[in-house]
Amino acid sequence: MAVNSLGWVGFGRSMNGGMKGADMVVIRGANDDFTATSMSSTDYVPPTVDDVQIWKLVEWNQLNGESYFVAQRAVGGCTDNLVNLPFEDLEARFIFAFGRTQDFVYHTLTQRSNLQLNVFHDEPLIGVPDLPYFDTVMPAYEIPLEVDSYICSNFTFPISDVKYHIVATEALINHGLTHHIIAWECPNGVTVPDHAGPEGSWECSTMALDDCIPWPLGWGAGQQIHNLPPHVGVPLGMDGAQNLVLQVHNNNPTFQAGVLDTNGLRYYYTSELRENDVGVLLIGSGASPQAIVLPPQLPSIYVTSECPEKCTQDFQPSMWLLSVGTCIKLGKLWRTIKFVMVEKSSTIRWITGITTGKAIMRTMNFRLFQEIVYSPNAFSIQ
């Protein structure tokens, strides 16, 4: 690790790219006295020291305001610790943060990030493709003085005459308050609500968009350029997307005022169509007050749901489903989640944590089973 700071440094595995459910190491010290401490976090709070210390500091150095460290740990981790996320031969999420001093305090919004990588393979970095592109950026609205806010804006693609494939995206980020961006394709267009601001954006925490479907391209903190696998593309224009709604989740815990949001995405497209279209298989519980009810005064609650065989029985018998990525979206009270595919009463494979572009599953007559463990606040009903 190389960090542009002489303060503490944290690095580790994370299920969702955040502190909650993270398995990490924190390196602190000064001069020739440094330590690597195994820590875990089950919520958005400072991590706790693990019972079993699995990290070892191998090398360290500080020079010209920068810190350099080499640390190692067992690939499988330790099941006796509060959170145990093994290092596997697949693309996984990692988080990192640092402080300006050795005082182990909050890292601020600009001293944290996350990334996806496979620690067992040194994949070459792929730059911006030499292709035409168009941008979808938010219309310069002022970010609300709220811890969490969800703002939407609609866009019409400038291409509709023929079919194209979007093959890559590039993040257009001008501030550090955005947590993530997701999008929805709206074949019948979008009716801008009456409460929209003069610039055309509106509050959309409920995400009530009639006749709109999930769009497979979005953005999360740490992502810059995202190239799709060479055999797939997202349909655009004729027989593809023409109307889109971007939803931006901003996180502003320090209530910064006067920040204008013009974040968004750049889409690179080509007329040389690829072998397969990308779609979205959306599974989970509905977004309504009745979908998931968490009683108070319980340490943990198991919530399960199932997508029955009739969801997939209409697929052609010869059709296969190739997964090119997964995205897990959960609220603040979750602790663990898993998805299972079941065919003829037998578990086929776990779906979460699959290797991008390598998990193939038959799409005829299988069930999808979801289990989430929540840890609700003892004094509130969520």
Order of the strands making up the biggest sheet: 5-4-3-2-8-9
Distance between the termini: 40 Å
Detail the poorly predicted runs: 347-363, 378-382
**Form type:** globular
Q: Which structural class do you get from the secondary structure elements?
A: mainly beta
Number of strands: 29
Q: Helicity range of the residues? A: under 10%
Strand content: 35-45%
- Average pLDDT figure: 77
| Largest sheet composition | 6 strands, antiparallel
Describe the protein in words.
- By secondary structure, this protein is mainly β.
- Helices cover 0% and strands 43% of the residues.
- The chain has no helices and 29 strands.
- The strands form 7 sheets. The chain has a 6-stranded antiparallel sheet, with no helix packed on it. Strands 10, 13, 18, 19, 22 and 23 form a 6-stranded mixed sheet that branches.
Q: Which terms summarize this structure?
A:
382 residues, mainly beta, 6-stranded antiparallel sheet, 6-stranded mixed sheet, 43% strand, globular, disordered C terminus
Summarize the structure.
With 382 residues, this protein is mainly beta. It has strands at residues 2-3, 9-14, 22-30, 33-41, 48-49, 55-63, 66-73, 92-98, 112-117, 133-137, 141-142, 148-156, 163-172, 178-185, 202-203, 213-214, 219-220, 225-227, 232-237, 243-251, 260-261, 264-270, 276-277, 301-307, 320-323, 334-343, 346-350, 359-362, 367-374.
